[in-house]
Structure formats: structure tokens, C-alpha cells
User: Fold these one by one.
Assistant:
Number 1:
Amino acid sequence: MASVEIRLQSATFLPLLIAVFTLPILLHAAPSVPTPMVAHWTFDDAFGTRCRDSSGNSWDAVPADARNAGVTRVEGVFGDAMRFSGRHRLHVPEGPGFRDVHAISLSAWVRPEKWDKYNEIFRKEDGATRVLFSFQNEGSILSLGLNIGGYIECDAKTDPEALLDGNWHHCAATFDGSAMRVFLDGKEIGVSKRTGTITAEGNASGCIGSSNGGECFQGMMDDVRIYATALAGEDIAALHRSGQKALVRRSEPIAGNEPTVGKELLAHWPFNERGTSAVIHDVSTGKPEAIKTSQTSARLRGVHGHAMEFQGEPRLPVRLPLAAPTLPAISFSAWTRPTELRGYREIFRQECAERLLFSFQGNGTILSLGLNVNGYVECDATVRPADLTDGRWHHCAATFDGQTTMPST
């Protein structure tokens, strides 16, 4: 079986046929831990001026910029999440309150997109009595900072490149009166012995994802929690497992009711997973076959059903059940909504001696079908790029019947 890559830059792409659209819903409820909470921001409320604190303590977070600059709602681990970009300040005016907190736990799901020197998850900047939970040194450290008889940080080493893999990661930190601990993806990665009580005084605003609008986290964040107690390692692991289960559920395929044409399918990727996922399914045999990809890709509204959004230079390898020399005829079909068509933009490509190619070329002026038919040959059809980047969906298809190649839109 030949290895295949699909590449499409900065475009939305729904391969093959039509499906019934179903909006993503809250697929897996955020877990509850029966213990006192300081604050809990789920980001599942309709975005406006407030991110509700679901702990019951009314420490709602609000964007400092009335235009919500740098802060948008996206699909998360549990329901919705927050995406931070550029400069932003999502703050809790004069809160949360930590005066009577003698032990603490912080927990958050993050999906970073880039690193700066400092990247805050949560910070309440009251000088030497600050409360801090952040990535530092370009993502190479995950740190908990508290005043326990003087300000101290527990710095745990992390792999910044591994954290930029496009997947969600669970971060947590605790202090129980005798030790500060830092956790990543359910496992303890750092500990500092420190006996004492927390001093966290002052009226500074707590900030989610920044330090008063600086040291801004870039990427997505979900389910930010602060407990007024130290969670045990088993509790942290349970929070991580619950998120993993929610993410697996997002990878499940759902029925799309795509039309059929009564012909045998070689492969069919409808991208009708429930939500953002690193898994796609080939449904050509009637029994979905899961294919794990190298990164998580967003799902959004397609023609009928979900579509996959491609940004940057994603690598989406798949496999065909037959080698090209065994095919007497072939057809390609895809719905596409490109945002730009500079250079070459592949819809499908198998790069080998028996190359299979279906792509936009010449800055979007050509739609091409390429096959090895007694030697490699391409059938180039002239198209207008302005017609294809108009924000609408366009159906692209190409066929070879043993005699003639025919691409069309």
C-alpha cells in the first residue's frame, strides 16, 4: 500500500461529498472534585463581557479591552475554550481572594502555539505576595510561585517543542503546607520542600493568560481551576484522564449522510469527527478506519457535515488499499474553500514513481490532475483564482476513464 500525503495551506477543505451538519456540543462534562474551590473558569458561557466563575464565588473574569482584543472562543477539551493571541488582558477585578487560603491547587488545560520568555497561565501580581502559575524560559519551565515565608518558585523542567505538538496538555500545581509540586499530563514533574503557610495579600487583579496584559500566553486554554486545598496526585491524574476521555470522544466519527453514486470507493475521508481531533476516518468500506495524524486539526461547518481546517503546512498522511498500477480508472472529488492559492496547493498527492496528484497550481490559475499513464502526464484546466477565493465552497473533481483525463470545478 502506498503512503499518501494531503497538503493544503491556509484553507478549509472537506474531501468528498456532502454530509448533514451537526454542531459540536458539550461532549464530555468537566469533572468535579469534591473540595473547596477559589475559582473555576470553564469558558463555556456565551462570550460577551464576562467569563463566569462556576465555583459560586463570583470571581468572574472580564477582558480589559471592550473589543475583546486577543481573546476569542474556540472549541476546547470540555465544550468551549479561550484562545489568546497577541496582547490581551483577561482579568478578575481585585480578585480572586486568597487571604484565608492555606493550601492551594491550580489546574488548566493548555494548547500553546508559540513561546515567549514568560507565558502566564494565571498570575495575581501583588509583588512579593503574588500567586503565579506560568511557563517560563521559552516554555522550558513550568513554575508555581507563592509566598511561603518569603516568595519562592517551584520550577519544573519541560520540553517546549513537545508542548507545541498541537495537542492539549494538562498542567497542575499544588502546595500542601510542606511541599510545592508541579504536574504535567497527570504526572508529577517537579517538587520543592517548603514548610509554612501561604501569604497572598493585596488588591491586584488576577489575570488568566497574562501578567496585567504582559507576558501573554499564546494559544488555547480551557477549564482553569483554583482550589483552596492541595489535591492529591491521584486527583490530578483523574483530572487528566477525564480530559483525555473527552478528547477521545471528539475523535469519534458521526453519521454525515453523504450521497452515494453507486461506484466502489477507493478511499473516503468525510472529516465528520465530532470535534477538533488528531484522528480522521476512512469510511470507504462502510466501517470507519481510524487514522492518527501528527497534529490536532479543527473541525468546522462544511458543505453538509464537518470540514477540516488546514493552516500553515499540515502533514496528513493516509494510505490507499491499492497501488496505482492496478487502477484502470480513477476519480477524485473534493469540496474546497481556499483562503489563498499562492504557488502550489495540493488537494491530494501521492509522491512516488506512480504519482497521483490533484492540485491547484500556478497561483490558482490551474486545477490539475496528474497520473502515470505510460509515463507521467498532467491534465491542466484553466480556472480563475478570484472565483475560488470568494469565501464560498467549490466542488472539484477529476477523472481518468482509461482514455481521457478531465479535471473540473
Number 2:
Amino acid sequence: MLATGKTNAKLLIGRRFTDALVQSDMMLWPFKVISGPADKPLIVVDYKVKNAVITVPAYFNDSQCQATKDAGAIAGLNVMRIINEPTAAEIAYGLNNRAATVGGKNVLIFYLGGGTFDVSCSVLKREFKRKHRKDISGDPRALRRLRTASERVKRTLSSSFQANVGVDCLFEGIDFYTTITRARFDELNIDLFMNCLEPVESCLRDAKLDRSSVHDVVLVGGSTRIPKVQKILRDFFHGKELCKSINQDEAVAYGAAVQAAILDGKVYKVTLLDVTPLSLGVDVADGEMSFVIPRNTPVPAKMKKGFTTRYDNQTVVRFAVYQGERARAQDNNFLGEFDLCGVPPAPRHVTKLSACFDIDVNGILNVYAEESSTGEINKMIEEAEKYKAEDEKYKAEDEKHKKRVDAKAALENYAYKIRNTVNDQKINYLIPEADKKVVQDAVVQVIYWLDRNQLAEVDEFNYKRKELESTCNPIIAKM
């Protein structure tokens, strides 16, 4: 069921039915409110709602998605599916443009919600302080009323060049009146507006498309009505006319209602491919992220990646599961971890392991690891509902971390290679005992140093490797 007209419902949260504000606002709402148990206000709906499809922002992380599910359960709802808001908007666009989408089109959903009026609220707060020498920052009621006025300003300036602000008895009996122009509003928010292009550029890179390959740019969310936002988008896409064929405020709810009808078998099947917004991977050693499922992989998906043991005679391998794009695992979102036990003792890099990631259509991630010779398996099940974050700005830091990991690995691999060479009974008789001891002592010192300097810098690892090479290479060359 598509809930229509139930706007401003948040104003009822935490209030009683007899609250003066509720009684006053009831006269303006297009839906009926009645008194429930303990004087709680209840919205009257035509049908008792048992099942629900809930939409969440694309950047929601696992805990936020899980909290949304829990809230639905507490409210007595059977949450049939949680989907991203842009995905729901895409469903709405697809149904409204079925004829136009025959043959396939590249459609970019541009979703901009209500964050911009926070800036307007701050400006109005400063303006009140300037005019009346009073600070309303500590008055929640005054701030709430000012925030409501700020939203009205944003809406008004989407169609007018000037908006008048009037709030009676805003603070300590003082009425607040001022005027803000569209030019001033655009100036205040220009940084926010320009930042909107960053996820657009990232989306195009992920899809391997250029601007000219996008057939439609669909606007979703009330703030996409802001003229400056539309101009920035048109300029970015070389003057392309923006798609406003779907209601910016209702598109997400409409798409969720269609998804619910599909799950309930009420309408024909719509093929919907949701994707993983960020990569999934594991950290098995060194703190480095090893990617298994790349971001933007359509779900459901199942992928496997091979690993080996890190140390000699290692019998337990820990798999820590993360979601994100950062090179260093700890900088990503931690989902969970588990140990694979019963690994047969063997020299490092001999035992073969595999990690398998399996995401179902609901976004549930099932991870398991397996040792090939024994078939030993252990697994972790974790919610991996979508969340989105911008990672591009960390590329320089990630590159630095990668160089450090590579330098450490080069030193470690060389040390173990030399140690294995001098311990190989087939050839070690070619090395004098005195030289053998020099090599063994040097390797032991390096391994000891590595154990205590895991976070050393690239130059330190390189220096240690060259130092070890200068000691060992001349001896090995005599063989």
C-alpha cells in the first residue's frame, strides 16, 4: 500500500493527542488523527498494515539498516524488504517511462533531500542574534520553529526570487521578521550545491560512462526543485534537459509500493538489479584489505577468493570481514570475524584456503572459509544491507599504505627465502658453516625486528631489506 498524504507525521512523535500543537495542526492535515491508549495520537488509515517495504538512504550502514528493521518489527510490521531510496526511485521512473526505456537507457537518479535548509536555519539564527542581541541556541522549541521557517524559505525560493520570514513570539516574546533573496540563498549554499557533483562523478566512473552517455537525469527529492541545483546539473551534462516526469517527493514511496506489490504477487514482475554500493573483502594478515566482491556488483552474488597460510605451521586463520574501498582494512566498515581452525601444519604459503562471499537478494551476507585438503569449513553470517560513503578523498593515504605494505612484504619474503635456502639440505652443504651462521643470524634479527615494527615506514623496510641483501647476497653468490 502506498501511504499518501501522511505528511508531518513526525510532529506527532512524543506528543499527546490533547497537546495544543497537535490540536492546532490537526486542522491543517489532510488525514484524520484520533486519541489512542494513554492519550497517544493515532493516524487513521484505511487498512491495517501488516507487511512493509522500507526504503533507506543509500549511505546507510549495516547497523542503521538493522535498526530500521528492528523499528519495523517493534511497530508490529513484517519487513518484507529494505531497499535503497534511489533504487525505489528507479522503479518509479521505469514504470512511468516504459515505452521510452525499450532498448535500454542509461538513467542517472539524482537524489537530494532536505539538508540544505540547515544552512538557512543557521543564518536566520545569526540574524535574530544580530537584531535582538539574544541567542536562541539553547531553546529547542525556538530552534524547531526556526527550522520550520527555514524549510518554508527553501520551498518559496524555488519559485520566487525573495522570501519573507515571519515567526511570532520566537524567543522571549520577540517576533522575528526578515527577508532573504534567492541570490543570498544560493550564495550561502553554493559549497553544498557544488559538492553534489562529487557523487555524480563517482557514479559515472563506477559505471564506466561519460556524461554524453547518460540518456536521462532523473530528479528525486524536494531539494532538486532548487533552481541553482538544476542549473549546476544542466551545465554538468552539457545543457541536457532534466527529467521531472515523476513527483520528486513521492517517487521513493511510489517505488517502494510497487516493490511491495511485486513481492505480494499483485503486479507483474519488474526486473530489478540492486548492487553492492561498496566492496566487500577480508583481512587475513597485515591489516590490508583483500577485496572479494567489488562495489557495484549486482546482487544476488557469490564470489570466492584464494588465500594461503601466513606463517609456518599455522593451524588457525582468522578472517575479518569488512565493507569499503580503503586499502587499510581498519579504515573500512567492520562486519564481523571468525576463525578457521584445524588447518594442517605446513610451511607458510603451502596450505590453500578460500573465502566465499554469498549475498542474497535481501542483502544478507554469508561468508565462509574452507581449507582445501581437509574440507574444514567455518562461516560468519552478517547483515550487509547497503550503505554509501565517499572514499575517493582517501586515495593518497591508501596509496601510501599500499607502498608500506609492499615494502614490508618484500623484506619479509626475502628473509624467508634466504632462510629456506640455507636450511635446504640439498644445497646448504655448499655454504661454509661460518657463512651459514652469518646468514641465519641476520635473518633471525630481521624477523625479530619485523615482529616489533609492523607499522614502520617504507624507507625503514627498504633500508632493512638492502642491509640484509648486502649481508646475504655475497654469501649466496658463492654457492
